[in-house]
UniProtKB/TrEMBL annotation:
<protein>
    <recommendedName>
        <fullName>Flavodoxin-like domain-containing protein</fullName>
    </recommendedName>
</protein>
<dbReference type="Pfam" id="PF00258">
    <property type="entry name" value="Flavodoxin_1"/>
</dbReference>
<feature type="domain" description="Flavodoxin-like">
    <location>
        <begin position="26"/>
        <end position="105"/>
    </location>
</feature>
<dbReference type="InterPro" id="IPR008254">
    <property type="entry name" value="Flavodoxin/NO_synth"/>
</dbReference>
<dbReference type="InterPro" id="IPR029039">
    <property type="entry name" value="Flavoprotein-like_sf"/>
</dbReference>
<feature type="compositionally biased region" description="Basic and acidic residues">
    <location>
        <begin position="1"/>
        <end position="16"/>
    </location>
</feature>
<dbReference type="GO" id="GO:0010181">
    <property type="term" value="F:FMN binding"/>
</dbReference>
<dbReference type="GO" id="GO:0016651">
    <property type="term" value="F:oxidoreductase activity, acting on NAD(P)H"/>
</dbReference>
<feature type="region of interest" description="Disordered">
    <location>
        <begin position="1"/>
        <end position="21"/>
    </location>
</feature>
Amino acid sequence: MAPPKEESKKSTKSSESKVASHGTPLLVLYGSNLGTAKQIANELAEDGKAKGFDVTTAPLDDFTRQLPDTGAVFIVTASYNGHPPDNAKQFVDLAGRMKSRIYQT
């Protein structure tokens, strides 16, 4: 069986680009030392834009003060022998503190 023609991929992409923007916020956060998780996050962001989302992409540590309370948040990260990537350490520390506060109540 022959592989699909490259044309079919292009036609799919052009039909996706015709989706009207609805402006729903989509935050794609990543933790990455070697770039793989960042690349996946960027691909998710592009897909979100094609679907009409208002997309923001950033390292996890850029959002240690407050996450948005509207829209969706995707988190893409790697783990290095159980340790967070360099640009996700502060976020992981914050999440750990939040977890302990939740379970204390």
